[in-house]
Every structure is written in structure tokens, then in C-alpha cells.
Amino acid sequence: MSAASAAAAAPAAAERRLPAWWPLAALLVLAAALRFSTLGLQSFWYDEAYTPVHVLHTSLSATLRAMVHSENTPPLWYVVEWLDYRLLGSGEFALRLPSALAGVATVAVAWAIGHELAGRGAAIVTAALVAVNPLFVWYSQEARAYGLFVLTAGLALLCFLRAERRPTDTDRRSTDQRSTDRRSASMAAFAASGVLALLSHYFAVFLLIPMVLWLLGGRATRRAALPAAGALLIAGLALVPLISAQGGHGTQWIGRWPIAERLEAIPQYFLTGYSAAPLGHGVELLVGLVVLAGAGLGVWRLLDHPPSVLAVEGAEDNARRHRLLMVLSIAACGVLIPVALAAFGADYLAPRNLVGAMIPVTALIAALLVWPGTGRAGIALAAILVLAFLVLSLDVDLSPRLQRGNWRGVAKLLRGGGARAITTVELGGAPLEYYLHPLRNLPRGSAVVVAEIDETGYAPLRPSAGSPPAPGFRLLERRDVDGLIVYRFISPQPRSVSEAALRRHVITRAHPEVLVPPRLLMSSGGAPASAEVVQMSSLTKKI
Length: 543
What we know:
This protein has helices spanning 3-17, 22-36, 46-55, 60-70, 76-88, 92-118, 120-132, 134-139, 146-164, 176-200, 204-217, 222-246, 252-256, 259-272, 281-304, 311-343, 358-369, 375-398, 407-414, 426-435, 499-504, 531-540, and strands spanning 420-425, 440-441, 447-458, 474-481, 484-498, 512-516. The protein is α+β, with helices and mostly antiparallel strands and 543 residues long. It has 2 domains: 26-402, no CATH class; 407-540, no CATH class.
């Protein structure tokens, strides 16, 4: 064999030695490294801390009762968290572990979605974008339902694509019976994954509606889709009493957030992550331009390149275009239906509730980046986008200003001491209860005898911040903990301070909470508050 022939054969031999799935394995390792290596880096924020403080109990039934009275999410996440809590405890790493596992699994699901949509190239790009996108990494490191919602929404999309797959996409040598059995199994998988998505987050319904309509609208899939549609309808109706009982707990903040700012935040979350607002619009614009350039290139090649005249290639090309249209409609419904509902008064439009719709958005962008004809330009844009997402995700790990509020650091500063009261913004209540356990809300109209008053919050501060909250107290210190401000006041001797006085003297304009050790809890008459009063206060506090 000549030297030239040997040189040409060497790469081919190396390629044969590598399994076809090695890019997926590499991306799974990358996704796991990004998620697990810093899983406990950030402290809990309010929603995360609220779960172990007020929702998780020893028994599953008590946990579900607390979920009904204090949460606005379906039950699947709390069942998973309860199992995790019983096995591993209530630490930050333990309670975030299910989200991290779901985030890594979503990368594999994204690979399969991309492959169904536009082949191996789209599979690699879709999985890579999901592995490093700062939004997906963020919710993979949060002890809330959003990571599970992303995974189940992705599973539903994957099963939908496989259930909808046209006969021309299947093995042409299959018998009619085998094709029928395969489609029935795909429909069953779609129904099961759709039910899991509904049990993970109520906004899954906006993604499932167009999927069901596509299946019912196709002559080849209509009959097989009827049982799946029925199962999803039954699951949705079964959740209605729970939705009514929960009554939108903790959603009042949504209406107070101007809708124009929320609409602006939707693309911002996808392009630069949940917490990247401090980076400014310049970074968002640069990432957005890469996305627009790649999507525009893909659309141009799609429109400029007619389907192949060859029967088999033409059928496959048409099928891919059809899937692209379906995924576009699913992504559009997942975002636009909640926007339309908000315009008509049913306003639950929080950008984070749309995180499930970001999976079809990502798959759509990936498919356009590698669409036939985009060539090296498409590959280069895909690589730039993946690199930009990776840099942003790493920046969150390195920059406290992009992280969750450091309530763990505040608690460390306040740890120890005796008779004290802590006033804080509402978002600090549950984290401080978690890190300084045990603490309880001081009941309305009561008083407490303390020798120290600690005030915590964030800028902008009220003009009165730093002045003594009650007679006899003086300022001991002011500390800044990664943007969270702490004022500590002490008195030479314990003094009685009313709940109303403490609540009035919060350092920011946010809704205040007053926390004290349970032994200091006093009713308005001066007697210790009963356990029933404390428990009721915990169960009725809203997020």
C-alpha cells in the first residue's frame, strides 16, 4: 500500500474505532460537569428554601396536603422531592439532585429530538445547545419543578415526533401489522410522556394542544391518536380540582411585573440565561445576532433548495420540512397562548413558566443551523452559539452578581446570638428560616423581648435604613453580602418591641417579614404561641 493510501485509510480506521454515539457521550459528560460540579455553589433562594421549610414532611400525605395549600405546581415534583428528601436529606445538593439528573437526561432527549427532526447533525447541535445553554443549566441547579418540566416536555415532543412519523419514514419492508403495532406503541409512549408533563407543570398543556391537533388532523394517525388524546384529556380534567384548590398561590407578583418587561425577558432568558440581566443588552444582542444569522441562513437554504425529484429523497425531504413546521407550531403555541391569555386577563405569564417551550425552540434553531446547504457557515454559527452559551454558563459560576441571592452568607453572618428579631424582605424569609432553623414568623399584633434586631434586604434602600428600629438600640455594623445588605442593632438589655414597629422599619420597600426563634414567640397577651398557630402560619404563607 502506498504512503498516500495509508494516510487516507488512517482517519477512516480511526473513525470506525469510535462508536457512532461518542458525541452524545461527550455532551452528556459536559452537561454533567456543568451541573454537578457546582450544584451546591449557590445558596437557596426563596422558592427553593420554601419547599424544605414548609412543604416537605415525614409523610407523603402531609407533604401533598402542604403542597395543595401553599404551592401552584402539579404534584409530580413534590413526590420526587419527598423521595429524595427521605433518602438523602434536605441539603442543597440533595434537593437539587433530581433537577440535575433531569437536566442531564434532557440532553439525551434533545439528541433524539434533533435526530428525528433533521438527522445526525441536528442531533449533535440540539444536544450541545441544551447541554450548555445557561437557562437550562440554571434550572438544572434549582430545587424546583422547572428542570423536570423541561425533561417531560422534551420527552412528550420526542414521542410525538415518533408517533407522527409518516409511513415513508419507517422501514418499507415492515408489514402493515408491524407498522400498526409500532405506531400504537408510539402513541402509548406519547400519552404517558404527555401525562408526566402535565403532572410536572400546568403550562405543558400549551405544548400538548398543538401536538394532539397534529395527530388528530392526520389521516394516518387519527385513529391511533384517539386513545392518547383521551388519556391526556382525562389527566387534564383530573388536575382541575387541584388547580382550583391551589388558587394560584404566590402568583400575585406576576401581575405586578409590567407585561412589556416580561415579554422582553422571554428571549433574554433563552439567549443569556435567567440571571444575566446585569450583563446588559449588548451581550444579549450579540448572542441574538448569532441565532438570527443561523436561523436566517437555514430558512434561506430551505426556501431556496426545492425538494429532491427522486422519490425516496423527495419524500424524506418533505417529511423533514413537515416536522420542522410542526415543531415551529408547537413552540409558537407554547409561548403565544400564554401571552394571549394574559392579554385577556388570565395572566400567569412568567417567563420561567415558558421554559418547556424552549426545547422545541432549541431544536428548531439547531435544525436550521445544519439544514442541507448551510455548509461550513452553519457549522461555524452553531459552534459560536454553543461557545457563547458555555461562556455565559461558566460566568454564572464565577460572578456572584449573576447568582442567586447569598442568603447562606447572610445566615452565616447572623448565626449565633440569643434573643433576636430579624426583619427581612419576603424573598429572604424562607431562606433564613432554612439556614437559621428554627425561626418562625412573628404573629401580627404580638410583641417580642429581644436584645438584637437584624435588618436584611437589598438596594434600593429606604432613607431610614441605618437608623435604630426601636428606642434603646444602636447600630453595631452594616455589611454587604454579595448585594444583600445587613444592619445589626443591639441593646444593652433585652427590650420589648412590637411586631408592628419591627415591620414598619424594614430597610427596603418590599413586603416585610419578621422572624424570631420559636421560644420567643408571644401572643398579643404575652403567652407563648401554640404549636397550632405556628403550623397554621407556616401552611398559609404564600410564595
